[in-house]
Design brief:
The structure is a single chain. By secondary structure, the chain is an alpha/beta fold. The protein folds into two domains: 77 residues, no CATH class; 142 residues, 3-Layer(aba) Sandwich (Rossmann fold), CATH 3.40.50.360. Helix content is 35%, strand content 11%. α3 packs antiparallel against α4 and α5 packs across α9. The N and C termini lie close together (10 Å).
C-alpha cells in the first residue's frame, strides 16, 4: 500500500486540474489498464522514447487526443482512491534559499505539507564561509557526531507516509542538522525521497548516510538539482517517481 501511496501522491496536483473542467469520459469497458500503460502514456506526454503505441486505447476522455486528462483517468482506474488519503510532507533545510526554491516547487506539484528545518542557533554568513577552515559549518562537517539543535519540531509527524527530504550539499555530504532531523523521528514506516542542491557534488554519499542513520521503510533514489533548476525539470522528476515504483505483488 505504501508504494501505491507514492504513485497516488505524485499525480495529485495534475489530477486536481480535473475539478475545473468536465471532459466527456469515453466508455472503455473492454480495456483493462496496467501500471505499464500508465508509464507508456506518461512517457508519451513527456516526449520520451516509448514502445510502439499505435492502436492503444489511451483516449479515455474521448477528445481524439492523448492529454493529461487521459493520464489522470487511467491512473484512477489502475489505482482506485483509498478511503484514507495518504499524507505527504516536504522537509527541507536551506541556508541560502536554493533548496527552499526546489522544496516549494515540489509542494506546488504534489500538494504536500511543508516544514523548514531551522537551527536553534541560526547559521550566519560567517558560519558557512567555506574558505575558512575554522568556520562553524566546517567544524560540524568534520565531526560525524555533531548534531546541531533544531528550533522546532514537526507537528503530527506520525500522520505522514511520504517524506521528501531536501538539503544543500556541504563538503560532499548532507549538513549535520539533517542528521539531527533523521535521528529525531521514526521513519520505519515512511517512504523517504531525498533531494539536494549543489553546484557539482552528487547526492549519492548523502543518500548512503541517510540510509545508515535511520531505519527507513522505503528510501527512493534521490535527485540533485542546480540552484537555478527550472519548474519543468522538477516536475518531470516528481512525475517520474510513480513509474519507477513497482506495485507489490
Amino acid at each position: 500500500m505504501k508504494k501505491l501511496a507514492v504513485i497516488s501522491c505524485v499525480l495529485m496536483s495534475i489530477c486536481s486540474m480535473m475539478s475545473a473542467v468536465s471532459p466527456v469520459i469515453a466508455e472503455n469497458t473492454e480495456t483493462e489498464y496496467t501500471i505499464d500503460d500508465v508509464k507508456n502514456l506518461q512517457d508519451f506526454l513527456l516526449a520520451k522514447p516509448t514502445e510502439d503505441l499505435s492502436g492503444k486505447n489511451y483516449d479515455l476522455d474521448g477528445d481524439n487526443t492523448w492529454t493529461v486528462f487521459d493520464l489522470c483517468l487511467m491512473k484512477r482506474e489502475v489505482i482506485p482512491p483509498d478511503d484514507e488519503q495518504e499524507n505527504t510532507l516536504v522537509v527541507y533545510f536551506s541556508r541560502t534559499g536554493n533548496t527552499e526554491k526546489i522544496a516549494e516547487k515540489i509542494v506546488d506539484f504534489t500538494g504536500a505539507d511543508i516544514f523548514e528545518i531551522e537551527a536553534k542557533i541560526p547559521y550566519t554568513d560567517e558560519d558557512i564561509a567555506y574558505n575558512n577552515s575554522t568556520c562553524r559549518a566546517n567544524q560540524e562537517q568534520n565531526d560525524k557526531n555533531c548534531r546541531p539543535e533544531i528550533a522546532q519540531s514537526v507537528d503530527n509527524f506520525d500522520s505522514y507516509d511520504i517524506v521528501y527530504l531536501g538539503y544543500p550539499i556541504w563538503w560532499g555530504e548532507e549538513p549535520r542538522i539533517i542528521d539531527t532531523f533523521l535521528e529525531s523521528y521514526d521513519f520505519s514506516d515512511k517512504t523517504v525521497i531525498p533531494f539536494c542542491t549543489s553546484g557539482s557534488s552528487g547526492i549519492s554519499t548523502s543518500e548512503r548516510n541517510i540510509s545508515e542513520l535511520a531505519e527507513i521503510g522505503t528510501q527512493l533514489e534521490g535527485r540533485r538539482f542546480s540552484a537555478n533548476a527550472d519548474s519543468e525539470t522538477i516536475q518531470e522528476w516528481v512525475n517520474s517517481l510513480f513509474v519507477e515504483v513497482k506495485q507489490e505483488e
